[in-house]
C-alpha cells in the first residue's frame, strides 16, 4: 500500500517528506493546476467566438467559470496522474486557506481519483503537526472553494472589463483591480493633499536648565496665559492659524526679543504632574502586521516579506503566514512562556497566559497567528538562518515571545516652569519596569537601544525651586505636509477600511509598482503621472468602483457568500449585468471619454499665470510631457522619466519649456576644446553637454549630474571636470587593467576593466567621483559587491532549487532589478511575470536557462549574418519599389493589430 500526498511547492514537499513513513510519496502541484484562461490562445475551441470568451466566464450562463490547464502546468498534471496510478490512497495537503482549498478541489476535478481521498490540513510543518494532521483528516470544504471561486470571478470581471478601456483611452499595459484601484486612489489623493498643502511658519523658545548639576530641557508653551502656536494650530489649506484658535503666533523678531528679555530672569517651578502608565504587549503577528513591521523595521517590501515568510513556513521554521488570526495555541503559549522564563527570568512573565482575540470581521484564513513552529521555539541563533530569513524569523520570534511577557510600567512626568509672563514645560519619562519592552519594541530594530531612548530623565524637582537657565534659544519651525504612504501605512489603511484581504496586499502593491502607478523613494510610495491619469478617469466615470466604502461592502458580501449568508449568482448579476451593471457602465462611458482629455492630468499650480501661457500636463506615447500654449502657438517638452508629479514645480516647467524655445543654458566655453558647454534637462534629469548637436556632431559628449549636485551649483569649472569623465585613476596592481571613475545612469561608480569582465562599485558620499583617489577606488573594489537595493551580491537567494545536472553548480532564484531571476554562469534568466517563486521547480529552471542560452546564440548568429549582408541588403533596398514598401507596411500593420488582439486578454487582471 502506498499513499500519494500532494502539496503546492517542492520546498514544502521536501520538508514534509522527512516526517512521513517510507511508503508515502510527496509531490508538488506547483500551485494551481487549473485556472481561468490566462490568454486568448488558451481559450478552449468550443468557446472561441462567444462574446464573453475573452473573460473566461460565461456571463450569459450563470457566470460559469471556464477552467483550463495552462500550458506550463500540463507536464505537472501528467506527472501527478502517473504517480496517482501507483497509489492506493490520495492525501491532499495544500494550505488550509481558501486558496489551498481551491487547489485541492481543482486537483480532484482534474485527477478524478478512484481511490480513497482525504483532505489533510496543518498550520505548521513539524513532525508532530504532520503526524497529527494525518490522524485528523477531513472532507473538502465546499464553502471555502465557493468563496475562492466567487472572488476569482469577480476580480476577472472587474479587471478584464475595465483594463481594456484604460488601454484605449490612456495607454497599453495598464490594469484596473478591485483592491488595486482603490489603493492607487489612496496614494494619489494623499499626493493631492500634499500639493494643496500650504506651509506655515512659527517660532518658540527652547531652554536648557540645570538643577543640582543635572541639565534638562523645557519648551515655551504659553505667553501671558495664552497658548503659543504649534503646528497643530495651522490650517493646511491656507498656511495660516486655523479659524477660532486663540493662540499667540511668534515670528522670528518677536521670538528673539522675548529671548533677550527672559535671559537673565528668575525661573520657578510652578507645578509637577506625575502619572503612572501601563503598556501591554502587542498581539502576535498576522499577515498584515507582519508586512507592516517588516517594512518599518527591515525595509522589506510586502512582496519580499511574503516570499521570505513562505520559505520559512515551507522549511518548518514558522507557522502558516497567511492569517487574520492573533490566536495562539496552548502549545505555542507554553513554548513562548518557557522562552521568557529561560531568557529573561520569571519576573518578566505575564501573571497569566495571554490569549488574544481577532477583531477583524470575517477573519477566516488560518486558525493561529504567525509564530515560530513547534512546541519548542528555536532562538534565532539556533536556526542557522542568514540574511532576510534570519531577520524575519528574529522579528517573529521576538513578537511572539513578547506577547507572553509582563506589562511595562513607566511614569510620565510633566514640570511647568514660569519666568515672568512666559510659561515653559519640561517632560520626562521613567521606566519603572521594562516588562515586554526588554524583548520587543514595536517599530524599533534594537529593543535594548529603544528602551534606553524611551527614558527621558529629569532631576528631582519641587514646586518653588529656581533652576538655573544655562541657555535660551529661539527656534523656528515650518508645518509639514501629510506624510506619503509607505507600504506599511498603506497596508494598515487598507486593512482598517476593510478593503481586500491582507494575504493579497503583497501582490496588489507589487502590481501597483510593476504597472508604473507608483515609485518607491526611500520608503515612500510616490504616485506617477500615469496613476493620476488612471485615477482621474475612474473617479470621474466609475466613482463607485474606486470608493473605499463601496469596496469594503463588496468585501463583506464576499464573506457572506463564503458563509452561505448570501447567494453568488444574484450578486454577480447585480454587479456585472443589468442597467447599472459594470458591463453597461463601460459601454455607456466609453463613448463619453475623450482620450485626449483622459491623458491630460489636472495638477494645481502648473505655471506662472503672468507669463501669458496655459500649461497642461499630458501622457504621450513616450511618457509624460508638458504642453504650453500661448495664443495659437503650442510648445511641448518631455518630462524626465524618473520625475513624479511631486517634483514638478512651476520653475521646472518654465525651465523645460524655455529649453525648447530659447535653447539650453550656456555655462561657458571649454578651455581646451574651444566648444560651448550647455546645461540641459533630459529623460534622466539634468546633464552637461559639450558642443551643439548637429549633422557633423550627432552625439555630443554628455555627462549626467551626480546625485546631490544641484543644477545651480554647476559652474564652468565643475562642468569641465564632469566632461573629463571617465577619469583614468591607474592600473590595478593585480591585473594591470585600467581602473576608472565615471557616472552612469544609476550614479557615479568606479570600474575595474579586466579581460574577464568589468567589475563595478558605486561611489557614495562622502566620496566624490571628481576627486576620488586611486587608493580609495581600490578599497571600494575590494569590498563585496552590493546591489541597488543594498543587498550584497553574495546574498541569500530567495529560493534554492538544487544543483545543475551538468556541472553541479547551485541553481538559485535571486531578487534582481527587473524581478526574480535564475543565474547559471554568465546566463541570467528572468522568471515569467505570472510565475510564483514558491512553485518554481529545478526542471522549469533548466528549461528556462536552455531557452535563454539558445536565444542568445541565435541573436549572435543573426548579428553576424546581418553584419555580413548589410551591403547586399542596402543594394536591394535601393531597388525596391514604393508600391512594395506600401504593401509590406500594410501587412505589418495588420499583423501587429492581430497580435495585439491576441495578447489583449493576458493583461489587466488583478485584485
Automatic annotation (TrEMBL):
Top-level division of the source organism's lineage: Bacteria
Signal peptide boundaries: none
Catalytic residue list = 320 (o-(5'-phospho-dna)-tyrosine intermediate)
Reaction(s) catalyzed by this protein? ATP-independent breakage of single-stranded DNA, followed by passage and rejoining
* Compositionally biased residues, Low complexity: 852-897
- One GO BP annotation here? DNA topological change
**Which residues does the annotation list for site: Interaction with DNA?**
32, 151-152, 155, 160, 167, 322, 515
A GO MF label: DNA binding
Q: Topo IA-type catalytic domain: which residues?
A: 141-583
Write out the ranges of the annotated region (Disordered). 791-812, 852-911
Q: What is its EC number?
A: 5.6.2.1
Q: Where is this region: Interaction with DNA?
A: 175-180
Q: Which SUPFAM superfamilies has this protein been placed in? A: Prokaryotic type I DNA topoisomerase (SSF56712)
Keywords, A to Z?
DNA-binding, Isomerase, Magnesium, Metal-binding, Topoisomerase
What are the Toprim domain coordinates in residue numbering?
Answer: 2-126
Q: Which family does it belong to?
A: Belongs to the type IA topoisomerase family.
Assembly mode: Monomer.
Q: What is the documented function of this protein?
A: Releases the supercoiling and torsional tension of DNA, which is introduced during the DNA replication and transcription, by transiently cleaving and rejoining one strand of the DNA duplex. Introduces a single-strand break via transesterification at a target site in duplex DNA. The scissile phosphodiester is attacked by the catalytic tyrosine of the enzyme, resulting in the formation of a DNA-(5'-phosphotyrosyl)-enzyme intermediate and the expulsion of a 3'-OH DNA strand. The free DNA strand then undergoes passage around the unbroken strand, thus removing DNA supercoils.
| Name of the protein | DNA topoisomerase 1
At the highest ranks, the source species' classification is:
Bacteria, Bacillati, Cyanobacteriota, Cyanophyceae, Oscillatoriophycideae
Q: Which gene encodes it?
A: topA
